Amino acid sequence: MSRLALKLTALLVLLTGLPLAVAWWQSQTLFERSLGAGLNPVVATALQDAVGVYGAFVASEKGRQRAVARGLADSRALATAAAAGPDALRAALVPVVADPRVGAIELIATQGPPVRQAGRPMPTDAWLLDTEVVPLTGVPGYTHLRYEYGLERAVLTRFEHMEADVIRPFSALAADRENLADVYTYSFVGSLAAAVLIAALIAVVVGRRLTRRLRRLREGMARVASGERSARVTPAGHDELADLAVGFNAMAQRLEDSHARVQYLTQVSAWQGIARRLAHEIKNPLTPILLAVQQAHQSYKGDDPRYRRTLDTAREIVEQEVQTLKRLVEHFSRFAKLPAVSLTAEDLRGPAEDMVSAHPNIAGLAARLPDAPVRVCVDKGLLRQALTNLVKNADEANRALAEADRKVILTVDPCPDGGAQLHVDDVGPGVPAADRDRVFEPYVTGKHDGTGLGLAIVKKIVLDHGGEITVGEAPTGGARFTVRLPNPADAPVAPRTAPREEARP
Ligand SMILES: Nc1ncnc2c1ncn2[C@@H]1O[C@H](COP(=O)(O)OP(=O)(O)O)[C@@H](O)[C@H]1O
Ligand SMILES: [Mg+2]
Fold first, then answer.
1. 394 lines ligand 1 (CB under 6 A)
2. Is the domain 254-337 a CATH 1.10.3470 member?
3. Nearest bound ligand to the CA of residue 474
4. 10 CB neighbour count, 10 Å cutoff
5. Which atom of ligand 1 is nearest to the CA of 457?
6. Which of 387, 397, 391 is nearest to 446 (CA)?
7. Segment 24-77, tens digit of pLDDT
8. 70 and 145 in contact (C-beta within 8 Å)?
9. For residues 112 and 108, what is the distance between their CA atoms, to the nearest angstrom?
10. Which of 159, 236, 423, 462 is least buried, going by the fewest C-beta atoms within 10 A?
11. Is pLDDT above 50 for 180?
12. CB of 470 sitting under 6 A from ligand 1
């Protein structure tokens, strides 16, 4: 695991564990205190006393009823009534059974059926029935008295409930007190461990993800640092790390662009040196060669027609080739002597319009310009040279078409970043995708009389302006050369010309 993931895990575990541990300690104290408050001997005694009160109430109620039964059995009135016959006996019992707690009274006779006097019926769901049997000693003809009475269930049920719901659970709890504390501790420690474990797991997963993305970024940086300028990272997600990746890619792109620019300018500077030397070496002998041939032509005074013809042809060829070479030398010199840019703020529409009016001989040349000015920093002279080269190339590419069908369109567009772009579109065959980088290299030409210097000069001028040039397809079907010039605020203040070799004599 990476250091970051480790730190994250430790932090998360601490953040979850610490408050939980404090909560445990606090609730442990609280638990002990409340257990102590509930499960103490005072409460137990109070509860037992309450049970005792109910028990005493039941016992006294039974005792009272028993005493009533005994009193009745021993009463003189009962003996008198018994002597008067069963009907009188029943009548004597009526006041006793008027008590709602008395169900019935029965006297068991020595002979014959018992004499019974019932009170109000006592349903068993409301009354708990009991019977007291008392032997009769002073009542002739009768042996026992059965006294049936009831205890009110409502009172008893409350007592039973109290026993079942309060006292028994309380006793169980009190007996289990130690166990209870353990269970509480274990369950708390268990939840604490589970929470910490889950936190650690989350931290590990999040940490892994985070470090994976950071590692990718670091690898990308290492690759760029080691010179692999095209290395990029894939931005994942929608957070600051993704922004960082996007920012890194943009930086790498700028690095790559500026490296390509410096490389190109250095190369061009070397080629300029070669062009200068070539121009110099070719130019010097041209005039002596021409003079020598012209002299030879003039000094022949003979009349051999064949020899004169040979001399004529030789002079013609040499004059033509010298002319071509002079043109080449001029191209080389122009390429070699490209001056440093001197920038002034201009409305780009001006140079585009000037281009159209300066080349009435180019068929179909037109400019499409916006209404508002498009301000950029340019070296007017160098920009004119670059545009001339582009327009001439476009015209040459159009040559296969009839004059009426030819089109060279110059378009000026402001860019959202404050810069501007200028397109030169034609209706020729276009530049094949595979050649689009190569055409800007010096001496690369597809024409039998081309020098391949035109686009190299254009690119050098554009780069010196802090801009860039690309070639693609025009909406008109031919090639589209696009020159992008930077926002005037970003224009190079100092000339961007690569160091030039000292001119040789
Ligand atoms: N507008 C264009 N359409 C098609 N091909 C073009 C165009 N402009 C340039 N090229 C190709 O790029 C080559 C290099 O152009 P350039 O550097 O101006 O040199 P040159 O014109 O002397 O050949 C051309 O020879 C041509 O093959
Ligand atoms: Mg050209």
1. yes
2. no
3. 1
4. 12
5. 17
6. 397
7. 888 888 878 877 776 777 877 887 787 788 788 888 989 999 999 999 999 999
8. no
9. 9
10. 236
11. yes
12. no
User: Residue 503: pLDDT band by 50, 70, 90 thresholds?
Assistant: very low
Please give the model's pTM, rounded to 2 decimal places.
Answer: 0.62
How far apart are alpha carbons 352 and 472 in whole angstroms? 20
Instruction: Please tell me the distance between residue 476's alpha carbon and the centre of ligand 1 in angstroms.
Output: 18
| Residue 447 CB–ligand 1 contact under 6 Å | yes
Percentage of the chain with pLDDT > 70? 97
Is the C-beta atom of 391 inside 6 A of ligand 1? no
Which numbered atom of ligand 1 lies nearest the CA of 393?
8
Ligand 1 center–CA 445 separation, angstroms? 6
Of the ligands numbered here, which is closest to the C-alpha atom of 457? 1
Beta-carbon count within 10 A of 246 CB: 12
**Ligand showing the shortest atom-to-Cα distance for residue 442:** 1
Highest mean pLDDT of the ranges 133-137, 203-207, 498-502: 133-137
Residue 353 reports pLDDT greater than 90: yes
Instruction: Measure the CA–CA gap between 177 and 341, rounded to whole angstroms.
Output: 96
- Decide: 482 in ligand 1 pocket, CB within 6 A: no
Does ligand 1 lie within 6 Å of residue 82's CB atom? no
Residue-wise pLDDT tens digits, 488-500: 988 776 444 444 4
**Total Cβ atoms within 10 A of residue 21:** 14
CA of 350 to the centre of ligand 1 (A): 25
Q: What is the pLDDT of residue 493?
A: 63
Integer-rounded Cα Rg, in Å, for the chain is 61
Residue 495 C-alpha to ligand 1 middle, in angstroms? 27
Tokens of 107: 């006297």
Taking CB atoms within 8 Å and a gap of at least 24, the contacts of 313-317 are: none
Domain topology for 341-505 = Heat Shock Protein 90 (3.30.565)
- Which residue's alpha carbon is nearest to atom 19 within ligand 1? 452
Contact 424, 390 (CB under 8 A): yes
Q: Give the Å distance between the CA of 367 and the centre of ligand 1.
A: 21
Q: What is the dihedral of CA 191, 195, 201, 202, to 10 degrees?
A: 150
**Span 90-131, pLDDT tens digits:** 999 999 999 999 999 999 999 889 999 999 999 988 898 999
Please work out, in degrees rounded to the nearest 5, the angle formed at the alpha carbon of residue 181 by the alpha carbons of 177 and 186.
Answer: 145
Bridging pattern class, strands 127-135 and 420-426: unpaired
Q: How distant is the alpha carbon of residue 120 from its chain centre?
A: 85
Token pair for 422: 């200028």
Atom of ligand 1 nearest to the CA of 429: 4
